[in-house]
Amino acid sequence: MGFANEVSEVSEKIKDAESVTVISHIDADGIASEAVLRQAIARCGIDVTSVFVRQLEPITMKYIPDNSSLKVFIDLGAGQQNLLEERGLRENEVVIIDHHVSQDVDTPYLQVNGLPYGYEKLSAAGTGYLVSKQIDDYNTDLAKIAVVGNVGDMMAREHCGLVGPARGIVEDGVECGNIEIVTDDLNCYGISTRPLHYCLSFSDDPFVPGITNNPSGAQDLIENDAGIDLKKRNGKWRVWEDLSPEEKRTLIGILALRLHSAGEPTKRLKAEHYIFPDEMKYTPLRNASEYATMLNACGRWVKPKIGSSVCCGDRGEGYREAEVMLRHHRTVIREMMEYILETGVTELSALQYLHVGDRFPDTIVGIGAGMALSKLNWKLPIMILCYLPDDPELIKVSMRTNERMVQAGMDLQAALMKAAEAAGGGGGGHKIAAGAYIPRSAEEGFAESVNRILEKQSS
């Protein structure tokens, strides 16, 4: 049929609906997806409501309303179509907008998914935006939120910037006036809010010896090697966005020399950033990656609708609540990372793992795992297992690796899906980050099972 035809058919199906229920995921991409699609649908004068779910699974299907509305599943659904069939949802009642591997079922549900067409770096929010733009060209102002979803789902990580259709969405935002592209900039997180030396020290892609995980080393490099002031005249810390082009070039050059001296490649030192000029400076909404973290905080602490309200323009009570969740989110993530490092992981030949029990919420274990990985053996993907508070019969599994290992052939999604299905569960995600749910009875030996699959990938 073709990707463009799928986009067109889905948009027409939505426009013809009398009412729509949007069912989405609770991560940054899912929240951004829902916000983009809900606004586009509402602008058509169509009655629209939303439902957020942690994951589409038997226990969460009860939240799908039993009414005559068109059910639009976004950022989920493609890999769980059997659940839609089991629920009795007919072909004309469902639309799926997703970017995960699709499942073969008897019912030919209408869906749009860039994956079969080679668009591996297009998130659900990006796909939902293309549908929204097809609904009405006026919706190009929603490109900004789609970019947040794309970046939040790590679509920019491999190429240090968005590519393909996702890059086209950025250009829509530039034309609309709510996105600025900063090219050849430092590949780091926190460019709008973190003090400069912390921004550099938290950067681990690439890992810079003496700087990564070393704030004092970063401070010494900035002040002594580069001769750059860390503070403004008013005494406040400078952030990366405060630096002049010349100061940025100086720091990037010194970091490149550090990498070269250590025999490390420098190609990942620079990246593309997406700044939102309509947002206040020094706030998490100023750039795509920090905006995505705020949405993740809202979702992981079970308030995705707050994140959605921020995406839809709430800069009052909703934004203040999101800020509180972001601070709490960062505190707990830091505590989890420290726990992982203090407790230690079990290393196998192809992975490292730890079971945290019920010590941390299942919604954040993947994020904590990703942060801890930079301080562990980066050549081994990390797997964290935990219990679920609302289902004592299941275990949540989260895995993370880095871009270097993905380029070497590692595929966490494939490994975790295969191992989880063999254990009577299910999994999904991406090559660099994946998750699964397995029965508690399958816990023993599960890590070894995943390890064997990863061994074969590297052989």
TrEMBL record:
Alphabetized Gene3D superfamilies for the sequence: 3.10.310.30, 3.90.1640.30
Protein name per its UniProtKB record: DHH family phosphoesterase
InterPro entries, alphabetized: DDH_dom (IPR001667), DHH_CID (IPR048515), DHH_sf (IPR038763), DHHA1_dom (IPR003156), SSDNA_exonuclease_RecJ (IPR051673)
DDH domain ranges (all copies): 20-131
MF terms (GO), sorted A to Z: exonuclease activity; nucleic acid binding
Residues covered by the DHHA1 domain: 357-455
Domain DHH-CID: 189-269
Lineage: Archaea, Methanobacteriati, Methanobacteriota, Stenosarchaea group, Methanomicrobia
Transmembrane intervals: none
